[in-house]
Write a structure and sequence with these properties.
Na:dicarbo_symporter_sf
Length: 451
Amino acid sequence: MSLPGKAASKPRGRQPFYRDLSFQVLAGMALGVAVGYWFPKFGINLQPVGDAFIRIIQMLIGPIIFCTVCSGIAGVNDFKKVGRVAIKALFYFEVVTSLALVLGLVVINVLKPGVGMNVDMHGVHSSAVDVYVAKAHHVVTTSEFLLNVIPHTAISAFAGGDVLQVLFFSVLFAFGLAAIGERARPAMDMIDSVSGALFWIIGLTMKIAPLAAFGAIAFTVSKFGFGTLISLGKLILEFYLTCALFILLILWPIAKVNGFSLMRLMRYIGAELLLVIGTSSSETVFPQLIDKLERLGCEKSVVGLVLPTAYTFNHDGTCLYFAAAAVFLAQATNTPMSWHDQLVLLAVLLLTSKGAAGVSGAAIAVLAATLAASNTIPVESIALILGIHKALSSAFVFTNIVGNSVATIVVANWEKALDRTALRSELKTGFRPADTSMSVLKQSTGGSAGS
């Protein structure tokens, strides 16, 4: 068995730093900050650059989920294993997101960044939050959320870009392929070929990722400036500290117990982490994470099932955001909240946070639904944090990506579907982008990750 990256390292050695995608994205972000600050009129016009990149990735996510799930589940042909993986993944998601909510509540109560602001809600213009409140009905009840998992048609799942609906249809279709046995071979060959083509497109698209990060950051700085960030800087610093504590106190021990280095994993997916900071969108790195997690030795079937599900149910960073933002708004508006009130808020968040993937850009909408359901904090107070939402979203999307990557490796380890030799080798040598195309070709012709 040859180790990924080992053969490639002999003829090439380490590539120059300026060709590394992480460096290029970081340079694009730095240039974007400069342009947004010094040339705001030009920077405000760069929004389409970042949006175009996000749309290209969004265009490919549905087909990639379909191909990955079908190839993984139908290739295994073990229905019991699929159910076992799903149960383990959902159990992990529920425990970790609950810990995130508790940590978020504890830190915001200790640091109290909103105390002393004494905001009078009569003087707050709340019209800006109306659009988010209008979206809240999509995630109000659990029954509506569960019913929304089933698409009206197979095509509408892909057309609407709903990750959970695509996953639902893909799992059923994969079971159908597994059930008909050898007759599914032509369809499986076609799916593998399509998967290879899709990942080739992703590889090509990633070449403009630094430009996308540049455009997104330039637009953000031009539109909101640094003044807004400074005025609510206490909340920003508190939230960034909370995300760091979550990674250190919860994700790091989980990684340690499961036998891998969290810091090396974060270095391995460094380009993706920088990209989500720039774009504030976790969707932009979904295809790349699939490829990297398979190269780290996670079985294709596990990655294909766990990662898309994690994008829906394992919002570690978003849960931290919900807890911090809700209590901050209570502090800023002098709304009294006892521990009993906060426990009620926690119970509501355990339900509403699972619906965050059901609405595009749903964090604010779900927060609005949560405040309305708890009936304690004024929903209109969300207007106070709209200006810094972009800064906060960069942190919670970053945390989501780290959490989803850890979750996939952990579930693969629990399922004994993790090639530890490949994991150690890849984390030690680091990701080599020149090998990606070969990895995809091997996968599309039936090779397993880490073989």
